[in-house]
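step 4 of 6: structure.
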Amino acid sequence: MQNDETVTAALAIIGNEILSGRTQDANLTFIGRSLNEIGIQLREVRVVPDIEKEIVDAVNALRSRYDYVFTTGGIGPTHDDITPESVAAAFGRKAVYHPEAYARLESWYKANGREFTEARKRMTLMPEGAELVDNAVSIAPGFRIENVFVLAGVPQIMRAMFEALKPQLRGGKTVRTRSISTRVVEGVLADGLAAIQKKFPQTDIGSYPFYNTPNGTGVSLVIRSTEERLLDAAGEEIIRMIHDLGGEVLDDERS
Amino acid sequence: MQNDETVTAALAIIGNEILSGRTQDANLTFIGRSLNEIGIQLREVRVVPDIEKEIVDAVNALRSRYDYVFTTGGIGPTHDDITPESVAAAFGRKAVYHPEAYARLESWYKANGREFTEARKRMTLMPEGAELVDNAVSIAPGFRIENVFVLAGVPQIMRAMFEALKPQLRGGKTVRTRSISTRVVEGVLADGLAAIQKKFPQTDIGSYPFYNTPNGTGVSLVIRSTEERLLDAAGEEIIRMIHDLGGEVLDDERS
């Protein structure tokens, strides 16, 4: 599926609370899907702790390999929010109060009769030269530096920031998906499915078993391709195979 | 918190369906928490696609850095299940049918009147010298090779495998957690909290804001330490700070 129009991305999820299992990440799925819709393929995700060296290493490994990198988490006012300084270090730049972000927060806290504390000023700390990513939910912005977008970890805020930055992303060909599910099990389908994958090398066919769901036990066969006609052709062969094996198609959906 | 008894782990989540956002991962949280309970700290997670080189690189990067590595996904019978061969490649070993796994599956399919197809035989393909990890849910085992445990991606099966391998894990000191929540916001708490963190360097204090939940808007302050007495002491200071700021403690829980 690699072609000139393949645009790739990676995500660095920053936070001890994700690694300890205290918090279930909700950003990966949103970002993976949202990128997909605009023709960008999420290719790698790393979850790292709130430790500067780990963040620096992850950001540097990812930004050189992928067209875009997104980070979530660690941009608040508390001592454990060290993402901006760490991203600055990854780029070998100083972290400074961003003048526009500083002005926005200063006037917001003033207008709301609250103190613009040192801690709150920390939320305007960014690598020198960073561009702001607006935050419609809670004012304090994220930022972009080169191909790296630094976003909040709180899902509502991350989503608002993602919507704000989306016009800046240049997508490639959109990958379309066709998902066909059946109660025929993987062990029975596998040989035929491998043959269909071989026949349609321009598609990526995945097989995802499900167990004891409302639909019972079976498998979802997911065809992904930038070409709608290949979803048609490969899908028809999969449906024929399911019928030939005496099975039934439970669902046949495109997205 | 680094000490002689710190035992670390990493997780490689393998699968295009996680990266595309089609499937929400449910294994990271379970593994993070379960390891925590037995004194092993999950330090890094990577999500990589079903591409051999990506799996090899992730497994090799992680197994040299952490005491244990777990992989989830890609061990079924279909063409896109390439984790076992990839892990074998990471170790420079051949992938072969594991005799014991082969015997188990052969007799299971025979007993159930089903054919032991080539595809099903693939589920017994493992690096030479691998040890089995039992699967109480659907027979086909996972495996261990050195410090790497290769598990299923389907959560029910992954959990059964994790329970089976758990006695093999050697944990360090268990990290205890105390979580105190309040509606006082981060910007107000941050300076005092940073001072408390500084006073208790043997603890790891995290600040996790919540927005528009049934508890309203506020923050959970999470103290992590191997020493219960430090949870007592740091927690008391946090509660005093909340009261000094005119706030209320909503929850105070340990785990």
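step 5 of 6: annotate
 - The longest strand of chain A covers residues 204-213.
 - DSSP finds nine helices and twelve strands in chain A.
step 6 of 6: archive
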